[in-house]
Amino acid sequence: MARGKQKIEAQKKNAEKNQKSKGSQIEARAAALKTVCSICKAQLANQNQLVDHYGARHPKENPPSVSSSSSN
C-alpha cells in the first residue's frame, strides 16, 4: 500500500491515464459519415445506406448515382 505522497501521485497518474483513453464518439461518427442525402441532408456512411434511405424516406425520388453522391 502506498501512503502519503506516493498515494497522491499514483491517483494523479491513474486519473490522467483514464482521461486520455476516453475518446469522443461524436468525432468518430462525423469522420465515418461521408455521404449526404441531397433532399433532407441526412449523413450516411456509404452508397448502400443512401439507396436504402431513399427507398424508405423518399420513395418517389430516384437515388443519385455513385459518381454524383460525393460529400460537400
UniProtKB/TrEMBL annotation:
Subcellular location: Cytoplasm; Nucleus
Positions of the UniProt region annotated as Disordered: 1-26, 51-72
Biased composition (Basic and acidic residues): 1-19
Keyword Cytoplasm: yes
PANTHER family the record matches: GEO09665P1-RELATED, ZINC FINGER PROTEIN 706
Official protein name in the record: Zinc finger protein
GO cellular component, one term: cytoplasm
Domain C2H2-type: 37-58
Keyword annotations from UniProtKB, A to Z: Cytoplasm, Nucleus
Organism, scientific name: Zostera marina (Eelgrass)
